[in-house]
Design goal:
The chain contains 15 helices and 29 strands. The chain is an alpha/beta fold and 614 residues long. The longest helix is centred in the C-terminal third of the chain and has 30 residues.
């Protein structure tokens, strides 16, 4: 079964060569399907992995003397990538340098294969990147194939020479290209290293400005064609480290950029400045938050970081700012200052050799010493063979008198689609609890008055009524069925031809994450005199990850969406556009199918006394 699965994956992946300039090509790995369960791939539009190969354009008929490879892909693309590389670079080339923008076990695995083919290889990385290379070189990522830790150790290959880039430095290639290397450390990618070719104005931005979608085109057609994917990537990975991201974007402004080519998705050759502005705008939105959660983590193989990403994304849906700190590359003073400013704490750790890594123990000590035990804390982590680190964190924090916002999360290996959804909803619930606690304190201080509810305009707004509906949806994500449902009343017809509707969905609704462009759903319109039982089902609180449709009688629409037979009528919609409206997303959908189920009933209407809440 395993071999069959690997063969299928190999058939779906391929490498194409995109000429950029004489002597420079992009080797692009194409993956039409979702490769991993991490949150960043949740839109399921495939992805690309872009690397860049510099050779000598002056003497094409002579033996190649020097080549530089920037941002090689991971081992997922190994077969096709190595075949393409061997056609371009002879094994006996005098100088072969590889610039590594970020380090993970998957990429290290490919670097090992390149080292076997090109013994003269030289790796170029930032100083933290070199540390990570040394840590990961003789280790394999834990997987279900290994029964014991010692089975994941491979010490058969020496680490090549590493050229360390500690500050901006220019690499001159064949007297033609000037490659400026810029360290860009961040909590998620502490070994970050960006490459900028000064003559072409080409910024090879690695993870910055990336978007997960599969395309053979070198550059995007216009900003709108990739807007949703780039925003999703930012929200999943960049938002929790907004301070560092903003500083790096400021550094990019100093460059004479003509085109940006990230490691995932198409290049941006005409609208790159507006994208820089988008990153700033999205970052500024984080600063408007009244509450902040500090997320402390270490992640040897990326699994704990994937859990952190999902929790952080769920929390941010409530409007709370999350600040991530990678404990392996954060000073004690920085940890202490962040802990003192935080309104709640999250701490995540892998288990390595039956223990928590030393940097996590340092962070735990700082939290125990400087943290406020009246503030909520949450702990999480991944493990390969055991999970003692999470147990240790739980015991120490309980003994220290801290209150837990959710049960400790312990996940073997990496989370699947259903677990990612559960993690997001856990983060959202954690954020809501923090907001409730904060509002309770504000009411106590203000004597119980809430000014917005007495505002005449807000009271008038409450007189706007809407049809009472149940929104339901389900989709297949990586062989897992993900479903969602919610009570909706902010619904309106928006167009005649084609027929369309708009629905406003709060950002902290679980269903929002599975209603992206081209996703289908059902709007079940309720009857005025027949809705008590169905509302009781969907107004109840659900635990994170719970199936909202469990135990509910449903039938399927033409696109396999869940219809509630008790409804007055139903409409099947397909999401065509999404507009961000502060604390809600406004979704425009075209109606494909629908039916009145009970013509004798009238539509239920939601009446409110104030526009301050539902």
């Amino acid at each position: 079964m395993k071999n069959s699965s690997n063969e299928k994956l190999a058939n779906e992946l391929k490498i194409i060569t995109l000429p950029i300039e004489q002597g420079l090509v992009s080797l692009r790995g194409l993956s039409p399907n979702r490769l991993r369960f991490e949150l960043e791939y949740a839109l399921e539009r495939g992805t690309t992995d872009n690397s860049f190969l510099f050779t000598d354009p002056k003497n094409p008929n002579q033996a190649l003397e020097e080549a530089v490879l920037v941002h090689p892909p991971g081992a997922t693309y190994a077969e096709g990538f190595i075949n393409a590389l061997e056609k371009a670079i002879p094994h006996n080339i005098n100088s072969f340098k590889v610039v590594i923008g970020h380090i993970n076990p998957n990429r290290v695995s490919l670097l090992k294969q390149l080292t076997k083919l090109y013994p003269q290889i030289q790796l170029i990385s930032s100083n933290p990147g070199a540390t990570l290379l040394k840590e990961l070189w003789n280790k394999e990522k834990p997987s279900r194939e290994f029964k014991k830790p010692e089975e994941a150790i491979n010490t058969n290959l020496d680490l090549p020479e590493i050229k360390i880039i500690r500050q901006d430095q220019t690499l001159y290639i064949n007297g033609i290209f000037n490659l400026r290397l810029i360290p860009t450390p961040s909590p998620r990618w502490p070994g970050g290293l960006i490459a900028f070719e000064e003559n072409l104005g080409l910024l090879m931005s690695d993870k910055f400005f990336a978007a997960h979608l599969c395309t053979q085109s070198w550059a995007e057609i216009n900003p709108t064609t990739t807007e949703e994917e780039r925003r999703h990537f930012y929200d999943c990975l960049m938002a929790p480290m907004e301070n560092q991201v903003s500083n790096i974007v400021d550094k990019f402004e100093e460059l004479d950029i003509k085109c940006i080519a990230p490691c995932h998705g198409p290049a941006i050759d005409s609208s790159w400045r507006s994208l820089l502005n988008d990153y700033r705008k999205w970052g500024e939105e984080q600063h408007k938050a009244a509450l902040q959660i500090i997320l402390l983590f270490a992640s040897a193989y990326g699994n704990t970081a994937a859990i952190a990403d999902a929790l952080a994304n769920g929390i941010r849906r409530t409007g709370i700012r999350v600040e991530s700190l990678n404990c392996e590359f954060t000073s004690t003073n920085e940890l202490v200052n962040a802990i003192k400013k935080a309104d709640a704490y999250l701490i995540g750790s892998p288990t390595l050799g039956g223990h928590a890594p030393t940097p996590i123990m340092t962070a735990l000590g700082a939290l125990l010493a400087e943290g406020d035990t009246e503030k909520l804390v949450g702990i999480f982590g991944s493990y390969g063979w055991s999970g003692e680190a999470i147990d240790l964190l739980e015991k120490k924090l309980k003994d220290g008198g801290f209150k837990f916002g959710f049960e400790p999360i312990k996940i073997k290996f990496s989370p699947n689609s259903l677990l990612v959804k559960t993690l997001e909803e856990t983060g959202t619930l954690f954020g809501r609890d923090l907001i409730k606690s904060h509002q309770k304190t504000k009411r106590r201080i203000s004597g119980g008055l809430i000014s917005s509810k007495s505002n005449p305009a807000v009271l008038a707004l409450g007189r706007v009524v809407g049809s009472l509906c149940i929104l339901t949806t389900k989709k297949n994500q990586s062989d897992e069925i993900i479903s969602g449902a919610m009570v909706a009343s902010w619904v309106s017809q928006a167009s005649f031809s084609p027929p369309g509707i708009t629905i406003a969905i709060a950002k902290d609704r679980a269903i929002e994450a599975i209603l992206n462009t081209n996703d289908f759903f059902i709007l079940n319109i309720l009857a005025a005199n027949k809705n008590k039982e169905i509302l009781k089902q969907f107004l109840q609180p659900f635990a994170p990850g719970a199936n909202r449709l469990s135990g509910v009688t449903i039938t399927d629409s033409p696109n396999n969406q869940p219809i509630l037979p008790e409804a007055l009528a139903w409409l099947e919609g397909c999401v065509k556009q999404r507009m961000e409206c502060n604390d809600h997303w406004l979704i425009y959908a075209e109606i494909n199918h629908g039916k009145v189920l009970n013509a004798d009933e009238v539509t239920a209407v939601h009446h409110r006394k104030t526009g301050a809440n539902y």
